[in-house]
Design brief:
38% helix; D-Maltodextrin-Binding Protein, domain 2; Arc Repressor Mutant, subunit A; 299 residues; alpha/beta; elongated; 12 strands
Length: 299
Amino acid sequence: MSLRQYEYALAVAEEGSVTAAAELLRVAQPSVSQQIRSLERELGVKLFTRTPTGLVPTKIGRAFLREAEVAVSASRRARATARAGADELVGELVVAVQMGLGTRQLPAALGALRRHFPRLEVTVFEEPNPAELERLGRRDVVDLALVALPCEENGVAAHHLGDEEFVVVLGAGHRLLAKDQVDLRELEGEPWVRFDRDSALDAVLRDVLRDHGLTPTTIARVSQAATAVRWASHGLGVTLVPASAVPHGHEHLARPVSPVVSQPVVAAIRRGAGPAETALLELLLQETWHKSAFYAPVT
């Protein structure tokens, strides 16, 4: 068995077909089919079964693929560590981020990382809810995660980067734009643009509304912070997002709130992390993690 065979099997499981897996891997379809058959012969088990919707792993296949994913991830980190030098860092870095956190800081840090190490391949997953982030962590495919709460798993180190302060976004011409800061109680009766019910952002908003005795009318639910801001800017309702998640050109519609609403931002990486995630962590620590870096009200 080879790690390449593991990678082929993982691609088939992800894509649901040999053809799509071959396109993803940029290899010929017969090569993928041959390697999967060879792997199944060597293991003496059937890894996939054909269904009307495509190829799906068997029960034994799912158990095998979990371990194969761990092996492939470990091999990737080992290669990156072995080839890391003062002027070169190659391999793959997988980053997961809780939706709405580090919207400006993470791209800036990743841009600096790629400029220093252009041969490093970076993949980023933005996940809307903590359960999905936890699932990715259990699969051992994430090198660094940005989350709102410290990770307590063994073997994971949590680094507090700073705090994301939340701002309310109002529609153009809204009466509260005349204020430099909005008291949350002044939002009573406002319609709200909210987020998917199982998302971390909606959990923050739900807690804020409950703690301040607000009974919101939900006008819409969206999946992205930037979408919520744009909808709010057109007067559909107000929304509450991390300050760094306010897209360029909409800052004049954002106001800090009183009492302050904030979340800690934590970078979770494995203890004894490799050079790629260590380099990214150092860059993230250099970023500014407070509201005033992004919010400048127009007076």
